[in-house]
Amino acid sequence: MSCGDPHETECGEVLDHLYEFLDNEMAEGDCAKLRVHFEECSPCLKQYGLEQAIKALIKRSCGCDDTPTDLRSKVLARIDSIRAGQRSGEQVVVDTSVEIHVETARPAPTVADAPGGPAARPGAPVEAGAQVE
Asked: Does the structure show a pLDDT above 80 at 2?
């Protein structure tokens, strides 16, 4: 994505690192570059606001659920395996499939489910910084 305007940091680069920014996993200098970009680029700011709202909704809806011990163990073992492969220089293939047990699964909430969300106003964009209830 690109808004078509020239920026010191390109839109594509900003969006590639959006989740690192949202999760506070970037160096302060890189964060500052993204903040400057958001101040001058409305489309990227809107995307940031949407992703921020989705993360907040997921956190609120799923934050109190305990992670099953076996799932936690499998995820940590897979992370260790990937890191070991990266250190050894071998190509790492990440399997992103997820096994869900129907008896414990529940539908994931969506932004459209939020009061005042897109479902309340079909086709309406989510504004940056909009609070999702």
From this structure: no
